[in-house]
What we know:
- The protein is of the alpha+beta class.
- It is 15% helix and 32% strand.
- It has 2 domains: 2-186, Porin (Beta Barrel), CATH 2.40.160.20; 277-389, CATH 3.30.1330.60.
Amino acid sequence: MKSRVMRILPAAVLAAAFAAPASADLDSRTYFVPAISYVGADADRKAPGNDMADDNVGLQLGLGKALNQRWNMEFSLVGDILNRTSGNDKFEQVGLLIDGLFFFSRNPGFSPYAVIGAGALNTEFAGNGRNTNPMANIGLGFMRQVSQGGTKLRFDARYRIDQDERSIPAHEQFEDWLVNLGLAIPFGAAPQPEPAPAPEPVAEAAPAAPAAPVVVDSDGDGVPDASDACAGTPTGAKVDAKGCELDSDGDGVVDSKDSCPGTAAGVKVDVKGCKIPEVVVLHGVNFATGSARLLPESLSVLDEVAATLLKHPEMVVEIAGYTDNTGSRAFNERLSYRRAKSVRSYLITKGVAPGNLVAKGYGPANPVASNSTAEGRAENRRVELHIISK
Length: 390
């Protein structure tokens, strides 16, 4: 049975080596293997007297080649001498070996592999002459690249079976352990990667048409921002070529805010675009009862007055305060004057020049309604602007 295995094993190694396709980037150079072996001799290498064979060192010289991404094949010449523990008897062994190395990984830093192989071993021992017998080995090892040229350090441990039935007739075979340390030195220059195929020529695309300039009109008045002299025009307002709102009657108030369109040329108008009369009753300007303290609702009316006076900085006005006839005349005159001063002070805070404002209190004089009714008295309690100079 063992002889049959020894005959089949070389064929199995060759078949396995060609089982996988070659890799395009594999280093397929032939390499030289010098190695030294430590041989752990089989305890059955005994002769009459039961002298044992000592462990010893051996040599291995081989050639190898990577066949594909998984398998290498190697052909090796091996030899060793195993001395007996006493006397001059020794086993002198020389053999030829075919190995298949199966790599679990091709990482240059650590490439572990399993090895299986078979061959023939010629042994000379004592007076039994030379005999040649089948042998096989199996083991594990690794390679590690140690130079840019691809040289690798290699180490493996193998279990070797030698079917030697003649050296010591009482034994049909010897089973030795070998630990091998050596190099794998490739012949020739390292293979260069295949250049990438040149890209197919690409027809030049026609030049793209220049992009149309982007026109920005932030306020949507139809005049681009780059030419708009009046940014932020209200939506829907009519504008001129410069993007400014129209002022059809030329009174300084744009049409969208002009409550009195069509004002005659040269007429002074308020902020609403209406003609400023000689006397303006400030409806909505009210005070706390018996006091000169302005009520909050009065301020929006006075803000419009201030805007109109600022529009016409040359205008001088009198702020006239009036009361109804309730109470003494002297009290009402003082109260109306204080109220006129309150209005003047507020307008000054809005930027109107103090020299353009004169405050006077007229008390119950010049009523505009009857003091006999509550409604009439309310109308008589008022503040007026009298235009002194336009």
